[in-house]
Amino acid sequence: MDITTPAPRRRVAIIGAGPGGLAAALAFHHAGHEVRLFERQDAVKPLGGAVLLSLPVLSVLRDMGVDIRELGASGVTEFRNHRGRLRTRLPFNPRAEARAGIPGWHYGMLRSAAIERMLAVMPPGLIHPGKHFARYDEQADSITAHFDDGTRWEADLLVGADGIRSAVARQAFGELGLFHCGIQVWLAWCHCDDVPRGVGWISHSRNVQASFFPILHEGKPAVEWWVVEPWKEGQRFAGDVRTHLTNHLRGWTDPLPRLAAATDFERNCFRWDIYNRPALPSWSKGRVSFVGDAVHPVSPYAAYGMGMAIEDGWWLAKCLEGVDLAQRDALAQGLARYDRQRVGYTNKNAKLARYLGYLFHRTPWPLSALRDVVFDHTRLLEAMLVETYLKDAETQMETLPIAAR
Ligand SMILES: Cc1cc2nc3c(=O)[nH]c(=O)nc-3n(C[C@H](O)[C@H](O)[C@H](O)COP(=O)(O)OP(=O)(O)OC[C@H]3O[C@@H](n4cnc5c(N)ncnc54)[C@H](O)[C@@H]3O)c2cc1C
Predict the structure, then answer these.
(1) 303 CA to middle of ligand 1, Å?
(2) CA 349 → CA 6, 244, 279, 285, 316, distances in Å?
(3) Mutation pick for ligand 1 pocket among 26, 36, 38, 40 (CB with most ligand atoms within 8 Å)
(4) Tell me: the pLDDT tens digits for 97-115?
(5) Alpha helices of 73-124 — where are they, by DSSP H?
(6) Spacing, Cα 20 to ligand 1 middle (Å)
(7) Pocket, ligand 1, Cβ cutoff 6 A
(8) Which stretches does DSSP call E strand in 191-326?
(9) Mean pLDDT score of the chain, rounded to an integer?
(10) Rounded to an integer, what distance in angstroms lies between the CA atom of residue 189 and that of residue 223?
(11) What pLDDT, on the 0 to 100 scale, is given for residue 69?
């Protein structure tokens, strides 16, 4: 891509102020464009529970000026069975660490904390809350976003960052085809003494996952934990959350039962039903492109939904560096570059996450017992995770077009 001549300042409309939209807004703003980020909520609030962000995500956040110091706590990710038996420990990659200038691989934090840091560096006036996107009209040399309140804004590029039920994606590609993955996730965090720092567990019983990871909460050590369980679409949860999760964790090895006991369920726990959509072969159409859940919702297994949304926003602006967004052909070439960079990679991660969801939560007896014997006594799980997830993500880190630290 030719980045010797700076591109003219053009207009970029972004729909949705989640992590993907915030990242795209920062990245296009740094590239010198006039950016408006439209959000349907009346205010953009930092919301959400436990997430793990990996080195490539932290690197692009820092590249956009976000302060990542003490944002999260680093840990080695270990897969175990529910009795605590170690199945595999995800290895660190020294080349990736050196390239990022950040030790480790996964950092545990609250989604809300990461969003707060992104909002802290957002230029004033860029976010337009209370704007519910309704539809767009595309002309040869521009695109106009229309909102429910009757207002509109004309831009050169429209970015759909409006999440899993994306109205922008529905208009661009037709019905979304969302389907329930047969699992739900409980996300919680707490302060709890004597929980080992520097290590996080993803542990499984026959059909439930219970996991924890160290985090920093307002600079202080805390622990995020989560439970993934089989769940049917439309199935209502009617019980008491504390009792439900405490029962799940009965018999699990320490510290998981203690984490439930230490949690303020009223304030620090919420539930999340997991949906996916069929993979799209391309995310760009005319003057519209996408980031995040709008085109690739991810079930929790790659631990990467928020991370990939942030990377998408950064990559979209990066692939359009030096491109005059008003020029239709040049824009199409830049968007094709973006699609090549991201679509295959994220689709692969989403597929892996879905597969692991089926494998760990919906494998019928007696195959589930066989699976557990194999995972407890062989290195198959490690081989699968390295081959299907870690290798590509590390390559991405090692080749990220940012100044080495
Ligand atoms: C509230 C919330 C909490 C979450 N918590 C966790 C968590 O704790 N752990 C975890 O691993 N994952 C969590 N996730 C999922 C994970 O964070 C997602 O993968 C990630 O948020 C995807 O980012 P995104 O920017 O693509 O979409 P989203 O985060 O879904 O953001 C989309 C934004 O678009 C806005 N929007 C939607 N429609 C319109 C419209 N028509 N007009 C204007 N604006 C619109 C929405 O209000 C929202 O702000 C959470 C998601 C949400 C929404």
Answers:
(1) 15
(2) 34, 30, 11, 23, 18
(3) 40
(4) 999 999 999 999 999 999 9
(5) 94-100, 111-120
(6) 8
(7) 15-21, 38-41, 47-51, 111, 132-133, 161-163, 167, 187, 292-294, 298, 300, 305-306, 309
(8) 199-204, 209-217, 220-230, 269-276, 288-290
(9) 93
(10) 6
(11) 94
Distances (CA, A) of 46 to 113, 114, 133, 195, 294: 7, 8, 21, 27, 19
How far does the chain reach from its first CA to its final CA, in angstroms? 23
Q: How far is the CA of 293 from the centre of ligand 1 (A)?
A: 7
What is the tens place of the pLDDT at every residue in 120-177? 999 999 999 999 999 999 999 999 999 999 999 999 999 999 999 999 999 999 999 9
The answer to whether the CB of 143 falls within 8 A of the CB of 13 is: yes
Q: Which of 39, 116, 299, 306 best tests ligand 1's pocket when mutated (most atoms within 8 Å of CB)?
A: 306
Two tokens, residue 335: 């968007």
Phi and psi at 97, nearest 5°, equal -60, -45
**Overall pTM > 0.70:** yes
Backbone torsion region of residue 218, taken as left when φ is above 0, otherwise alpha when ψ lies between -120 and 50, otherwise beta:
left
- Give 195 Cα–ligand 1 centroid separation in angstroms: 30
Other Cβ atoms within 10 Å of 16 Cβ, number: 30
Q: What token pair was written down for 282? A: 């391309």
Domains observed in the chain: 11-179+276-399 (3.50.50.60)
Kindly tell me if the per-residue pLDDT of 317 is higher than 50. Answer: yes
Residue 1: per-residue pLDDT: 45
Determine the Cα–Cα distance for residues 358 and 183; give it in Å rounded to an integer.
9
Assess contact for 53 and 392: CB atoms under 8 A. Answer: no
- How much of the chain, in percent, has pLDDT values that exceed 90? 80
